[in-house]
User: Fold these one by one.
Assistant:
Number 1:
Amino acid sequence: MRKAYLSLGANLGERGETIREALRRLALAEGVQLLQVAPFYETAPWGKTDQPGFINTCAEVGTSLQPLEFLHLCQQIERDLGRVRHEHWGARTIDIDMLMMEGATSDTEELRLPHPYLTERAFVLVPLADIAPELAIKGHSVLEWLERLPKEDKDVIPAAEVAEPFPLKLIACIDEERGLGREGELLVRLPEDLARFKQLTMGGVLIMGRKTMESLPGPLPGRMNLVLSHSLDSKSANGFEIAGSLAELWQRLGELCLQGQQDFWCIGGAEIYKLLLPYVREACLTRVPGKHGADVFFPELAGFELLESQPGTYCLFEHYRREFPRNFSKQ
């Protein structure tokens, strides 16, 4: 494995969601480990300015792939996510640029390493400084190159959308089969689990699906209750707030981030867990013994590391985090 550094950007469609999906596909690719991801930044277009603004970030990966193999992987992810190369520096659904790779240089038409414009672009240097400030490029650190840019070229601000690549937490109670519920109800109701749920989520934002909303007596007090559903509207919400799509969800969470909210909890049900799991950084599980005849199940927590496990009276409390470190020093 050797380290490589990437710049990711998008200015068409659901920009933040597309970048998160590109990161997820990189993390799942054979021969690749996702090590760090910078915050997302809103930036003006560069090179060709008559186009929408971008969201940009940088990532550090470890890879056993050769430079051209890794380039082709990035290009395949771009194509899978709808990238069509119509014009140089033009608008794009997703752009994944290789910036540097340890021990590798290249000066061919297909691949130039280090990237020839790496030291000239604030939308690259600002997020790269979040994860690799001392990385040496042509005899100077990333921070030194950033300081050399003219002040007017540093117009890079945290994204209005959620600035963190993996902004969500998750909380669930499951049995030995990863069962979540049966016939629209919880499998078990343990006072200590309910107390933990309340303690962890109080003051935060609860994100749930329609069925979970319908299983509650009403909005849970002390928290914002946000329902992700394309079949509901605000008139039928009864005190719940509705997001009709992932794009609307990210927009709303971005607004809440700007107001200082950082605590976003996915609380189910099964389809919502599956849909939002790629965007989760932490998971808090309560495991209850036995099999309880569930008809809906919790997805596998692939790519997460168990940080803590504490026994309760009738259950086990676990805390997981995605296994790669991240640096969000500028949030």
Note: The longest strand covers residues 54-63.
Number 2:
Amino acid sequence: MTTKLYATFTFFAMLAITYPAVSAQEKHGAHHEQAKHHFAAKEFDAFHDVLHPLQHEALPNNDFRTIRAKATELASAGEAITKLPLPKGAKAGNAIKPQMKRFSTALAKFKRDAAAGTDAQLKESYVAVHDTFETLAGEWPRK
């Protein structure tokens, strides 16, 4: 009887230890799925799909090889955003136009740094792309 009780206790102890890890992974996956359709235009979603793992996995681990490997895909998705027509309404368009220019400039520098820059230059230009995207996406009017 004691062996059976010990085995039951061990099973539930292991379950309690692993539950928070599984739960955190599920939450992260749910966040990513929710973020997928968060933006006003599909081009923003496509860009974010490439950006998200770079921001949350590659960058914190200083994995510049992965960032360089995804640079063309990220830049291409970003360029699709820069080709979007500005939102209707003079006020909305005027507010977004300079941010779109900053995003476009950041993308161009990122592409250069991914091709021939140091890891420090790549990190700086990647962060600029991320930050200008976040600002642009936040200012873009919802449909």
Note: The first helix runs from residue 2 to 36.
Number 3:
Amino acid sequence: MKKVACMVLAAAGLAASSAFAADMPVKAPPAAAATTPVWDVVVTAAIMNDYNFRGITQSNHQPSAQSGFEFRYNWTPTVQAYAGISGESIDFPNRAAAEVDFYGGVRPTFGKLALDFGVWYYYYPDGQCFNTPALCSSLGGGSSVALALPNGNTIKQNLSFIEGYAKATYTINDNWAVGIQEWYSPSVENSGADGWYTVGNVTFTAPSSWLPSGVGGYISGDLGYWALGTTDAFYAIAGFPSGIPYTSYWNWDAGFGWTWKVLTLDLRYYQSDLSKGDCNAFTGDQTAGGTSNVTPINPSGLGSDWCGAAFIAKLSASIDFNANLK
């Protein structure tokens, strides 16, 4: 995926950190001081040994790069509007070139409570439909047909989709913060299946006296549940002629990290409770193999390890033009 990683970084034209994972717990900014400029820009970049989204690898357990930027407008000291774009290198079954995220929303704060409401669009350009040409065209799979994946899985040309979200973070004190997020899509990965994703998180920020001067530290964890619906007829199989009911699942992560100036090093463990068979049905993993992972929605028995345990190290940078480049 070297070509993809370079394309993502060049397309975004950036050199610094990480607004990449749509479901990551990100605090809304604290109430702006009276001297805070009305406009602000934050540039981000990251490298990681795997790109994981809700317990599932997006890069086939291979290294991934991210870059992006976010424009912010402070309406008042406690209300901020924002819009951004972020790009990630991926390895998808439909051979999409990259993930490009477009998002925007508003962040109001009420004392210790920070809220965030917005819309996120996941764009996966240059994909191909893997199925028979007749089914690709007749069932909405797409016009760019690449016949079948080597393992027999099928996937649409266009996997792009949209989600709306609402987030709340409550800062208990200088060390503890808790949050909850709700995400909804009418068609997850353009499959026809709707999806409600709920995630809660907790973060402990280490007291400054515990670490060397200028170094910060934290421990955090997330627990999420993705309630998924039924696909359209493109993914239909015997027994489910109108589409397969995706298996809803839990996912979680826990980790710790250090911050220094604009840099953050995060070390994190990810896991989900999807079986290898249901993981294959959900992802269409082009590397899935075997015949023993039979489930009602995965009669082929192919098994995918994309939803299994993963340990991920991520180095990211975030440059706030007003705060870091004065």
Note: The first helix runs from residue 2 to 12.
Number 4:
Amino acid sequence: MAVQEPPVNVIGLTRQDYQGNPSTLCSGCGHNTISAAIVAAAYDIALRPTKVIKMSGIGCSSKTPAYFLNGAHGFNGLHGRMPSTATGALLANHTLKAIGVSGDGDTGSIGLGQFKHMVRRNVPMVYIIENNGVYGLTKGQFSATADLDQKLKYAGVNELPPIDLCLEALVADCGFVARSFAGDRKQVEALLKAALSHRGTAVIDIISPCVTFNDNDDSTKSFAWGRQHEEVVSEFSFLPNRTEITVDYPEGSAIDVDMPDGSVVRLRKLDNNYDPTDRYAAMRLVEDAHRKQEFITGLLYIDEERPSLEELERLPATPLARLDEATLRPSRETLAKLMSELM
């Protein structure tokens, strides 16, 4: 009997080619679901692993790049410093597709300044925040996104208001801002496909419950809360540019957003008063949801017009890392001219 070969995508890779190492995180951790969604999304859009760089900082979330795309490049930086290392790597080689995985502690506390400047510069990368409201790797202290008055067995009561990282991204003029829930794998995969085709920084804040320290039913970062309170702001589909895809949509208004690679994100508004291309509307939506203790998910804002860092810096087609010494080193005459201008 002939052995059936596993299916391959359009570049001839199997789903196994996108796998990583076995997870060492707690069983049931939402981070593992996100890693599986990254594997599925990368396989579906035929992302070549050797053209990907995986970036991370410190924390449970920052361990997860080991669990997907073993064939990709990777760099695990210091706590909160992932944005600067990613910026340097992508300036050196802008042909790489960057996937950064961070956590609410890594991004919202020690790394908040770096996060804001990365968004301000529009570094071309997918920035995934695996948000659980606690420092899971160091035994469950409150993070900057923890709910006000939240009670934890080993940490007491949180007396500080939370930081909303989607709102921080919107204020910094990020061109792709989304929120999702690890328990909604279909939505996570669709958002990842769209984010991987975005020209600049794409921030996806994914509520990813910590089953060990913060899965209490009254926590907005728990599985129970997510399942009971999730409200999807928009239904959408991602249409790759390599083949024609037909989709059966329910009744309602829809808009198509063209991506730089020729693919299309099709947004269907559930609320006719909400426009996902209106940044101020997105800010109001996030603020209202926070005040009402609502859990809004979906693509909150998209802007494909803002130039990325590589465009602003007018980087050459050949990556800086591949330019020879003669091209990189200015001549004596050029240096003399430069110095005279500074006199």
Note: The two ends are 81 Å apart (CA to CA).
